[in-house]
Design goal:
2 helices; 60s Ribosomal Protein L30, Chain: A; alpha+beta; six-stranded mixed β-sheet; 34% strand
Length: 186
């Protein structure tokens, strides 16, 4: 195998939790605000409502990343620290940029995928709920566009729960739909 096509030797870095998978294969489950970056024979999965999962895959390097973000940016009044917080898209984007640079992965090496952003809360025309899926989708699409990354797969919006699974061995992304989210009456 040439150095150009050799799999990346990047170890998995994650804030997620270990999850036993099918047929004894292990995986990582990401809670809201968690992220994972690396390679290997694991599956990274998460459940999405209004939050979004921004997924990056570098086919040549066989390297993947998933961030489960809840809001585009830190709301006013939230303590700003030097520690990045994956709940916020701005922080997750910075974290991804740093990990990609550390791994020697260029933007031209990447494919981007996006899932989630369901509308949760009040029905259309009523006072907005606390979760804004549309704002999360817009943030992720703008972040990808700013880095020249076309979104090769999107499953966003609506009022449906999603379970996302990324296979770090081959970059295969699966999104399964669950139940519908309820409409909250004002």
């Amino acid at each position: 195998m040439s150095a150009q096509t050799a799999p990346c030797r990047q170890a998995l870095e994650t804030t997620g939790v270990a999850e036993p998978g099918h047929l004894g294969a292990d995986g990582i489950f990401l809670r809201p605000g968690d992220w994972a970056f690396g390679s290997g024979g694991l599956r990274v999965s998460t459940l999405l409502g209004s939050g979004v999962a921004l997924v990056l895959w570098a086919p040549r390097l066989r390297l993947g990343a998933v961030c489960h973000c809840l809001q585009p940016e830190r709301p006013g009044g939230v303590l700003q620290t030097t520690r990045l917080d994956g709940r916020y898209g701005g922080d997750a984007g910075l974290w991804l940029e740093r990990r990609l640079a550390d791994a020697g992965c260029g933007w031209q090496d990447l494919q981007a995928m996006l899932a989630g952003g369901a509308q949760v809360g009040a029905p259309a025309g009523a006072r907005a709920g606390t979760a804004d899926g549309a704002a999360n989708i817009a943030w992720a699409q703008q972040w990808a566009a700013r880095h020249g990354l076309p979104l090769v797969q999107q499953d966003v919006g609506g009022r449906v729960l999603r379970r996302l699974s990324l296979n770090l061995a081959d970059g295969q992304l699966t999104v399964a739909h669950g139940g519908h989210l309820p409409v909250v009456q004002p």
